[in-house]
Task: structure prediction
Amino acid sequence: MIALAAALALSMQAAPGGSPPPDIDLLPPPAAPDPAAVARQEQLDRELRTRRSMLQLHQVGGLLTLASLGATVIFGQLNYNDLYGGGGYTRRWYDWHRYSAFTSAALFAGTGALALFAPSPLEKRLRLDTAMLHRIAMGVATAGLATQIVLGFVTAGKGGSLSQRDFALAHQIVGYSTFGATAVGFGVLLF
Amino acid sequence: MLALVALLLCAPPAGQLLDLRKGTLTYTVVHRLHEVRATSQQVEGRALAQPDGTVKVQVRVRVATFDSGNSNRDEHMREATHEQSHPYAEVKGTMSGVTVPLQQPLETTLHGTVELNGEKQAQDVAVKLQPAGGGVRATFAFPLSLEAFKVERPQLLFIKIDDRAVISGDLRFETAR
Result:
């Protein structure tokens, strides 16, 4: 018995210069997941895969939205110059601006929906970080785009009226602001 | 006699036990557009300094506690490392030639194992030890391959982050109370 006790005591000491033990557990082991957590795991994995796919598409949509909004702003400026800047009132950019605006509005809505409806199964606290700045910028852009749709139709409906130029100017300013907010929303994610 | 055997089995290990009092662990990953550093201050650790100069160390951190400054990115990293199944990243190993209390700064190597995403890889980590108050301050940095740990590299705008990640730490151990 004494020999056994001595052997046990020796076995608990690391052999000087010997190889490290196969495993070192100095901290208490983490609590094992309860059965409910294990059962939730599969559902969570599915939701995370869905979220990832949706957010990948959101990135594609974001790039396309930014490009189409850029095109809309350019066609809008050309249209403004043509109609109110001494361009001859040819209306040759009108349809380009109109259809690029519809396209960008549809892309914007679809891209936003992908982010809004993506499952978010992991708990995370809300705080001011680049993800939040992205949301704020895109919220401003959403408000701007909604304003633009209304302003666009109102401006088009003021044909022949003296106030049309003022509405067009407001439409132009909000248009640049909307594009700027979208660009900021895109840009903050690159940092 | 049985009582003696039981007592020996339950006896605390020989040597001085040190607890991690405070510290940070940081991972740095590189994307073509930017570099990302994420830090956790919720690090757990313990070291056992043995009379022969061998020190056993175990340090772990919950993957969910890393903060990169973008909650979506942190969530993506949790997803990529299967944090729900493997909530901890861990380093454990042994150093030799370390006498506690430390009298002067010392550079040594931890022969250890890194566990991430449920995968384990052997890793030698160069560690700088400095006396700090009544304890020891340990700083280190080492690179690892994300794919070696079967981490599906996150991507932004269809560009994956580099395979190489650098783990660095600044930990302060003090005698366990």
Summary: Chain B has a mean pLDDT of 91. Chain B has one domain: 14-175. The two ends of chain B are 31 Å apart (CA to CA).
